[in-house]
Inverse folding.
């Protein structure tokens, strides 16, 4: 047994970069959750900015959420086209990321998949306030599905700095934008989805 | 606004290494916890191995814990001399790390500070089974304080691979080994405590 050299701490190897997002989610890989918990949300219906960050359209929105039996605060949501995660090998037209932070600095992202269907009043409101920093009403519930079943795993931000300390909750039930809205969204960003990353033996937890 | 280049993802900058452990904990820096929670433990009283890992003496012990309203499974505990964390600028003679894992792979370490005082029956039992892989009884409660108040922050393992995804719960109430036991422990490792790492604006949460 070789002793760890505490006099050469700056030479210790450090592992990072193997817990990245997005990933390919699947029921085949998923394990069941081992404790009683459900996602709950209390989001405001008033947004306070819309900006194009260079990585996507981002909307300032406040609110609270209980994720895995702990409280989180909503910071913003933003949109990727097409989806970043896949579910059972299926990609979606878009993926909305609700970014939360806990009091200890822990980040959690709730992801809603988007498919073509009913027109979204939230997306219409967002479009009307592009690059504005004024408050405006959004229904928000039309981009958060009623069904809150999810896949959960530990990953990263999907844009630089790709920080690895992120709890992911990817909702199984998609929401809808109209085909016209999706086409419009892709005029802004036709491809701002990061490549799928290696799972590297991370557990995927399924909520049911 | 410059758009993020999705065609050159391999060149995206990645930040890591700024959420390391141990750190200097202090009441001056700590914020109050924003939700009701307490640490609870259900550890076995039977250990199954003792080994010198090269980074310290490690004891195989099973059990369960509720940390921040989520369930974790105990993997092992090990000992650093002197302590790795400091509390209000005070270092301790040793620090015991109880290493836990959740079903999603999340790691959590509960740390108990050690000062000179009553002799520990647990440490005596550990010594008697050094480098053995047989089951043996340990009281374990004598190295886990009755008072479960803690400092919490997000950090890393303190030995390679220094993985950053670790919830820390550093107990405020120390436990004791006899001075003779501490002297004996330091004959194995006089200095297996990692240097204090930069806080880098991470929140420190206090349980009360």
């Amino acid at each position: 047994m070789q002793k760890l050299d505490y006099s050469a701490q700056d030479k210790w190897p450090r592992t990072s970069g193997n817990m990245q997002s997005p990933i390919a989610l699947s029921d085949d890989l998923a394990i069941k959750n081992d404790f009683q918990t459900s996602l709950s949300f209390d989001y405001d219906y008033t947004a306070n900015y819309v900006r194009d960050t260079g990585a996507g359209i981002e909307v300032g929105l406040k609110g609270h959420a209980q994720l895995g039996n702990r409280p989180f605060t909503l910071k913003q949501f933003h949109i990727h086209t097409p989806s970043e995660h896949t579910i059972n090998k299926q990609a979606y037209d878009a993926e909305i990321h609700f970014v939360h932070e806990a009091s200890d600095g822990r980040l959690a992202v709730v992801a809603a998949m988007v498919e073509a269907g009913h027109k979204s009043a939230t997306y219409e409101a967002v479009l009307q306030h592009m690059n504005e920093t004024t408050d405006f009403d959004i229904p928000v519930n039309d981009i958060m599905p009623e069904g809150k079943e999810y896949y959960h795993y530990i990953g990263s931000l999907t844009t630089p700095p790709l920080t690895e300390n992120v709890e992911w909750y990817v909702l199984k039930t998609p929401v809808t934008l109209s085909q016209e809205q999706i086409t419009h969204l892709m005029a802004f960003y036709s491809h701002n989805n990061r490549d799928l990353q290696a799972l590297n033996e991370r557990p995927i937890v399924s909520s049911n």
In short: Chain B touches chain A through 48 residues (CB under 8 Å). Chain B has a mean pLDDT of 95.
